[in-house]
């Protein structure tokens, strides 16, 4: 639903057009009510799912999208990816309750500009919207800490980690990076699923990662994925 903006125009020449995408109605109502009082910010639409989020993005060409991650149908990661394919200059700010790696890294890879938790104060969310309009990214402090810890090891050391992998482990890693399940990898390589699990465990250990998402990010980052 459309909102009327209040206050002055911003540095981008007009009020910052914001689209809310969240499957919790009360969250959307609360955000819209708060942002509607902020100078230079206009909530142009509210979507309860990814499909409607894409449709409203096409209708209103928002400057900023506040994006939930866990929604029925199309999740926030895929919705982010599709909106940015349509509007590369749009800034997607993740606003979520989740901080685990399985959601954090994929949405950043998809192009999310900022990452905030729903425990953030209303003023912090408004400031993040204004910062995004200026081209400045904002990360929740816990998110920044996780990312720093993830990539803290020296680049030279990190670049050598995959050299420890056997030829078979490298094959498995490349398939993990394409999103294949253990069963699909077993079928493609004509090996047992227990063997695949053994190789995946070794890969995690040698690359110093915790899950398949991190392994896939490592593979893409170092040009190992096909």
Folded structure, characterized:
InterPro entries: CheY-like_superfamily, NreC/VraR/RcsB-like_REC, Sig_transdc_resp-reg_C-effctor, Sig_transdc_resp-reg_receiver, Tscrpt_reg_LuxR_C, WalR-like. It comes from Paenibacillus cellulosilyticus. This is LuxR family two component transcriptional regulator. Pfam families: GerE, Response_reg. The chain has 226 residues and is of the alpha/beta class. The chain folds into 2 domains: 134 residues, Response regulator (Rossmann fold, 3-Layer(aba) Sandwich), CATH 3.40.50; 67 residues, Winged helix-like DNA-binding domain superfamily/Winged helix DNA-binding domain (Arc Repressor Mutant, subunit A), CATH 1.10.10. Helix content is 50%, strand content 12%. It is built from 11 helices and 5 strands, in the order βαβαβαβαβααααααα. Helix 9 crosses helix 10.
What's the topology here?
Elements: E1 16-21, H1 25-35, E2 41-47, H2 50-60, E3 64-67, H3 76-86, E4 91-96, H4 101-109, E5 114-117, H5 122-133, H6 141-150, H7 155-160, H8 167-177, H9 182-189, H10 193-207, H11 212-221
Parallel strand pairs: 1-2, 1-3, 3-4, 4-5
Helix pairs in contact: 2-3, 3-4, 4-11, 8-10, 8-11, 9-10
Keywords: DNA-binding, Phosphoprotein, Transcription, Transcription regulation
Domain Response regulatory: 17-133
Domain HTH luxR-type: 158-223
